[in-house]
Design goal:
Layout: H1 8-16, H2 23-26, H3 39-42, H4 47-51, E1 64-68, H5 75-85, E2 89-94, H6 100-117, E3 121-126, H7 133-137, H8 140-144, E4 148-154, H9 158-161, H10 164-168, E5 170-174, H11 180-192, E6 202-203, H12 205-215, H13 219-235, E7 240-241, H14 243-250, H15 262-276, H16 280-292, H17 297-312, H18 319-333, H19 338-351, H20 357-370, H21 433-446
Parallel strand pairs: 1-4, 1-5, 2-3, 3-4, 6-7
Length: 450
């Protein structure tokens, strides 16, 4: 039997008995205008609009699409909308369970359907990044000859996980996480529409806010939690879903955290101060609160990068590269896996030796500059590469450090106004101890001493 997880027969059963399907399936948009979020893909004249035959240009030239975005942002939904809008058969496969055999079965069925009934097929392949190169190669003839309209979904960067020939034959659409306004509208529609909960229950303000927090931009997660909470409320004979019911149902307490208010800044401040104080357990607690509340992982990563320079500096020179690597990883993978990377970086920074010498050094230097102690650049340090520079005395008398033993030339570098100023005062913590051992010797040699 052809692997077809959303056939016309299944669709007909759902329409006859909507209650037999999960709420997330029942609320699946049927037309483009019902799609939540993704405004950049849905504006008039966009490739997606043209793909479903809207606009003067007709269907877009690319016959196949790769949808790249986090879970619950509408990848399956968009594939389904395309199939309905273009009146095509819809066949769904998952790369987790399907292989080349299943793909070929679908392609053979698509060719038969196209030849016998004139109805084309949309093949929705979820998690295409899990297919090997050989498995992805098996899709090329069908895409090239347009036997199927391939709509492939991935949560990973397709430039790393999808073969180039398939990418070049497809339209790449990037989906963004849904924001709170998108999810709020979806939840309220699900509460009132007949195909949803049909007004059987209402949702308190606190319960709605908690659902938005735990959804993390994932529409499927939001609707699944709402359905479970609604069932629990009705079982208790309650007409309103309370915050307590949501907490009981999803087994997650509502954390006091406002991403736009005091809690956002207070918890972020506590995280950094716990890292500065080397309390790794407290730091992990505040990190967990931010993650659980749906904080933007990029915001957390930025704070960790600042901490690496502000509070650790040269006491552990690997701290900043580690924090930068964590930020890059977070930007590539997103939640939920990004929690592991943020934990990794937080633990390393909390347990690293601490020094604020780099912070105080630049602060003191900036203070002098702002007081007007900048002064003229010494003539021998000025640029001497242009015609006439020598007549002005620029670069005259400059000693090239690599020409002297030890590569430290005794000459004046700072302007007269701050000559002899000491901004950097290294600690003897961690790796910075080695700088403390040499900085005084270097300064002495620069002054012409031994």
């Amino acid at each position: 039997m052809e692997p077809d997880l959303f056939t016309a027969a299944a669709e007909e059963r759902q329409e006859k008995d909507p209650s037999s399907s999960p709420l997330a399936v029942r609320m699946r948009p049927r037309v483009v205008d019902e799609v939540v979020g993704q405004r950049h893909l849905l504006k008039p004249g966009s490739p997606l609009r043209r793909l479903v035959g809207e606009g003067n240009g007709g269907p877009a030239g690319a016959s196949s699409v790769i949808l790249w975005g986090p879970p619950g942002t509408g990848k399956t939904t968009l594939a389904y909308v395309v199939s309905r809008a273009t009146n095509k058969r819809f066949v769904e496969l998952s790369a987790i369970t399907a292989g080349v055999k299943e793909v070929r079965t679908v392609i053979d069925g698509a060719r038969r359907a196209s030849g016998g009934y004139g109805k084309e097929t949309v093949l929705f392949l979820d998690e295409i990044h899990r297919f090997s190169k050989a498995q992805q190669d098996s899709l090329l003839p069908a895409v090239e000859n347009r036997w199927v309209t391939l709509v492939a979904a991935t949560t990973e960067n397709p430039y790393f996980s999808v073969i180039s020939p398939l990418l070049s034959r497809s339209l790449l659409l990037t989906l963004e996480p849904l924001d709170d306004d998108d999810l709020r509208g979806l939840l309220r529609r699900a509460l009132t529409e007949e195909r949803g909960l049909g007004g059987a229950v209402t949702l308190s303000g606190g319960a709605e806010a908690h659902l938005l927090r735990i959804a993390g931009g994932d529409a499927r997660r939001a609707l699944t939690a709402l359905e479970a909470a609604a069932g629990a409320a009705l079982d208790k004979g309650e007409e309103e879903i309370s915050l307590g019911t949501v907490e009981e149902t999803v087994d997650r307490a509502a954390v006091a955290y406002d991403r736009d208010g005091d809690q956002h800044y207070d918890v972020a401040s506590a995280l950094i101060k716990s890292i500065r104080g080397s309390d790794v357990d407290a730091a992990l607690h505040y990190l967990a609160r931010m993650i659980d509340a749906g904080e933007d992982p990029r915001f957390i990563a930025r704070r960790l990068m600042i901490s690496a320079s502000e509070d650790i500096g040269l006491a552990d020179p690997t701290a900043l590269p580690l924090a930068v690597a964590a930020a890059q990883a977070v930007a590539m993978i997103g939640f939920p896996e990004a929690a592991l990377t943020l934990s990794h970086a937080t633990i390393a920074l909390a347990l690293a030796p601490k020094s604020n010498a780099a912070t105080t050094a630049i602060g003191a230097a900036l203070d002098d500059v702002r007081k007007g102690l900048a002064g003229a650049v010494p003539a021998h340090l000025r640029d001497g590469h242009y015609k006439g520079a020598a007549k002005l005395g620029h670069a005259q008398g400059y000693v090239y450090p690599h020409d002297v033993p030890g590569a430290i030339a005794a000459q004046q570098y700072a302007p007269d106004g701050v000559r002899g100023k000491r901004y950097y005062e290294p600690t003897r913590y961690g790796a910075e101890a080695r700088y403390a051992d040499v900085v005084d010797k270097v300064r002495e040699r620069l002054r012409g001493g031994g």
